[in-house]
Specification:
The complex is a heterodimer of chains A (115) and B (114). Chain A has 115 residues and is mainly beta. Chain A has strands at 3-7, 10-13, 19-26, 31-38, 44-52, 55-58, 64-70, 73-78, 87-95, 105-106, 110-114. In chain A, strands 2, 4, 5, 6, 9, 10 and 11 form a 7-stranded mixed β-sheet that branches. In chain A, strands 1-3-8-7 form a 4-stranded antiparallel β-sheet, with no helix packed on it. Chain A is globular. The mean pLDDT of chain A is 91. Chain B is 0% helix and 51% strand. Chain B is built from no helices and 12 strands. Chain B has strands at residues 3-5, 10-14, 19-21, 24-26, 33-38, 44-50, 56-58, 64-68, 73-78, 87-94, 102-104, 108-113. In chain B, the strands form 3 sheets. In chain B, strands 2, 5, 6, 10, 11 and 12 form a 6-stranded mixed β-sheet that branches. A 4-stranded antiparallel β-sheet of chain B has the order 3-9-8-7, with no helix packed on it. In chain B, strands 1-4 form a two-stranded antiparallel sheet. Classes of the chains: A mainly beta (115), B mainly beta (114).
Chain lengths: 115, 114
Amino acid sequence: SQTIHQWPATLVQPVGSPLSLECTVEGTSNPNLYWYRQAAGRGLQLLFYSVGIGQISSEVPQNLSASRPQDRQFILSSKKLLLSDSGFYLCAWRKGTSINTDTQYFGPGTRLTVL
Amino acid sequence: AQSVTQLGSHVSVSEGALVLLRCNYSSSVPPYLFWYVQYPNQGLQLLLKYTSAATLVKGINGFEAEFKKSETSFHLTKPSAHMSDAAEYFCAVTHSGSARQLTFGSGTQLTVLP
């Protein structure tokens, strides 16, 4: 069976510090990978998605970036955090590109607080 | 472009009462629609999905949703609420692009009263 991991689970960082959040998927190959952010009292905002190694698409201009160094690894980064980067970050994966495999499966999330 | 509107950011029901969470969508192509549930400080769990087969979709935990094209709706229902149903619920629609991104509604917080 497939599992998705995110770490760390919680993180408190000062403004201006760097960020690295990691997401890994087990039990599948060549998944589509997604990063979402959920700010307090708001819905889910898609930040980045990737259909393959080294292939990153950005949905929202911001000071965040994403990378996919390996097939089942997706990293969210920032060089300098802003207060507005606080939120709950969720990684998700989807198998393949067929419309019959549209279900996205979510990780447990990382709670980021920027002070 | 695809979009989803969830009417009612907060819904309260009594234990044993009917749960009805509303979702309306806008899509330029036949949509694939999803309902997810999120418990506090956890990721999202799939409740059910509509993928152009049966219009009445049954999911986990006794939930079901009916796709109504004429009303562009995909409301979530459960005949009898349980305390454990208290959570936030999200409706989502798939993009038509190759990456099949999801667009989520703003969510509905369900409170179940004893």
